[in-house]
């Protein structure tokens, strides 16, 4: 599940960028409106709209975890008692749950698009995913 602000950020504003079409077309991604705007407003003082709505939605639906890579957003979510994972850890979880078959092509695509993944971390993720 993603909040409306994340959808707008990735699909609408990010039209033509990597991942925009995949998010729009993925049948397993549901977009939801956040009900508690007060929670969103509280986080907007320090975070962008997508991160603020993601934290609020995670709390509203009592989700198992939230995917955040921004350090300030991660800290805010942890302070709210939420279980936080980064994108790379999420890829490992997705492979373990057989949502994806391989991590390496996704890591390589992320790197090509400018997502910084150092060599040590890259190899560690591949080892965790059983691909090295």
What's the mean pLDDT score?
A: 93
Low-confidence stretches: none
N- and C-termini, Cα separation? 31 Å
Strand order of the largest sheet: 1-2
What pattern of helices and strands is seen along the backbone? Answer: EHHEHHEHEHHH
- Provide the helix percentage: 55-70%
- Calculate Rg over CA atoms: 15 Å
Strand residue percentage: 5-15%
Number of helices: 8
Question: Which quaternary structure do these chains form?
Answer: single chain
Number of strands: 4
- The secondary structure category is mainly alpha
**Major sheet:** 2 strands, parallel
Shape: globular
Write a structural description.
The N and C termini lie far apart (31 Å). β3, α5 (71-79) and β4 form a beta-alpha-beta unit. The chain has a two-stranded parallel sheet with strand order 1-2. The protein is globular. Helix content is 56%, strand content 6%. With 132 residues, the chain is mainly alpha-helical.
Defining key terms:
single chain; 132 residues; mainly alpha; two-stranded parallel ribbon; 8 helices
How are the elements arranged and paired?
Blueprint: E1 2-3, H1 4-12, H2 20-25, E2 31-32, H3 37-44, H4 49-61, E3 66-67, H5 71-79, E4 84-85, H6 87-96, H7 104-112, H8 119-128
Parallel strand pairs: 1-2, 3-4
Task: Give a brief rundown of this model.
With 132 residues, the protein is mainly alpha-helical.
């Amino acid at each position: 599940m993603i909040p409306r602000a994340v959808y707008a950020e990735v699909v609408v504003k990010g039209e033509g960028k990597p991942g925009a079409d995949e998010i729009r077309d993925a049948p397993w991604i549901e977009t939801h409106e956040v009900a508690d705007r007060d929670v969103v407003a509280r986080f907007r003082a320090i975070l962008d709209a997508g991160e603020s709505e993601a934290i609020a939605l995670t709390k509203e639906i009592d989700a198992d975890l939230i995917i955040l890579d921004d350090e300030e957003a991660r800290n805010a979510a942890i302070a709210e008692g939420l279980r936080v994972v980064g994108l790379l850890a999420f890829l490992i979880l997705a492979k373990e749950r057989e949502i994806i078959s391989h991590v390496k092509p996704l890591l390589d695509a992320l790197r090509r698009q400018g997502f910084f993944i150092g060599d040590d971390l890259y190899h560690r993720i591949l080892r965790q995913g059983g691909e090295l």
